[in-house]
Design goal:
Layout (H helix, E strand, L loop, with lengths): L6 E4 L3 H11 L3 E4 L5 H6 L7 E4 L9 E4 L2 E5 L4 H5 L2 H6 L1 H6 L6 H6 L2 H7 L5 H9 L2 E6 L2 E6 H4 E3 L2 E2 L6 E8 L5 E9 L6 E12 L2 E10 L6 E2 L1 H7 L6 H14 L10 H21 L3
Helix pairs in contact: 10-11, 11-12
């Protein structure tokens, strides 16, 4: 299938972007890496009047540490994140997740901003952002605003970005020495859409879990937290008994729809498996 007809503009700067967004509003679509959007166009899942190409705006690229935050520009590619020492050192959960993102050719062109703005519930970055409660930086012609990941993802392919706004960056908290992180997902083939994925972030007091975040992907119409499982682990050590308790508590957090990857029962089972594996791996690592 071929894409519908649309107009195209190559934005030179953010002023160009906001001018076009003001003119076309809901009829405009932002083109960054294009790895998801072009496929959606060809499948007629998107029908914009105009594509606004932001790929040449250098201000939206790059990775920078500032205080206790690592800011990643929206146009930073998956491959740049994968090869970044700053990401590996300061946001290890994100570094663990990137190898699962699609395939090499897509990682060379696809961007973190494109993935987050799309809001695909089976994508890796939204789950990581939710587990770390990252801040999404959204800008319009009047200025910037920040919104936490837990408030950013609303439903299937729907985020808090408004028609005349642009996601310009994401800010992750810098990891501390007493934290542990694990990212895992299960797919039929490496690079395929995940059947289930899990992002785990633990803050430890010695061997005891002081704070816990568990984010799941491909389990709802957006990435979700697992509050019951998180509560069951808080104040516990990572042992077989606490892992089993967390698995049982996870049942209260999940009501997944079946999809082309797996039915609901399989998804719930796989989520239990991933939680056990992630906690076991975290327990074997040293703070």
């Amino acid at each position: 299938m071929k894409s519908p007809d649309f107009d195209y503009v190559k934005a030179k700067n953010l002023d160009d972007v906001f001018a076009s967004l003001h003119t076309y509003k809901d009829s405009a679509q932002i083109l960054a890496g294009g790895q998801s959007l072009l496929a959606m166009l060809n499948l007629r899942m998107a029908n914009p009047q105009i594509l606004i190409d932001i790929s040449g705006i250098d201000k939206l690229k790059g990775i920078e540490k500032s205080g206790n935050t690592l800011r990643i520009g929206a146009l930073t590619t998956h491959n740049e994140i994968l090869n970044s020492d700053l990401v590996r050192l300061h946001v290890p959960l994100l570094s663990q997740a990137v190898p699962y993102v699609a395939h090499l050719a897509i990682r060379n062109k696809g961007t973190i901003g494109g993935s987050l703005a799309l809001g695909d519930p089976a994508a890796e970055y939204p789950a990581v952002a939710l587990a770390l409660n990252a801040s999404l930086v959204i800008q319009n012609a009047k200025g910037e605003r920040r919104i936490k990941a837990q408030d950013f993802f609303i439903s299937l392919y729907k985020t808090a970005v408004q028609p005349e706004e642009l996601l310009v960056a994401v800010e992750f908290p810098i990891a501390t020495s007493n934290q542990k992180f694990v990212f895992m997902e299960l797919a039929r083939r490496m690079g395929d859409y995940a059947m289930v994925g899990l992002a785990l972030a633990l803050t430890m007091d010695g061997k005891t879990i002081r704070e816990c975040a568990i984010s799941l992907m491909a389990m709802d119409d957006k990435p979700i937290l697992a509050p019951s499982a998180m509560k069951s682990l808080t104040g516990q050590q990572i042992q077989s008994e606490s892992i089993l308790q967390a698995q049982n508590a996870l049942e209260k957090d999940l009501d997944p729809p079946g999809d082309l990857q797996a039915n609901a029962a399989t998804k719930k089972h796989l989520a239990r498996v991933l939680l056990s594996r992630a906690l076991t791996q975290a327990g074997e690592s040293h703070v």
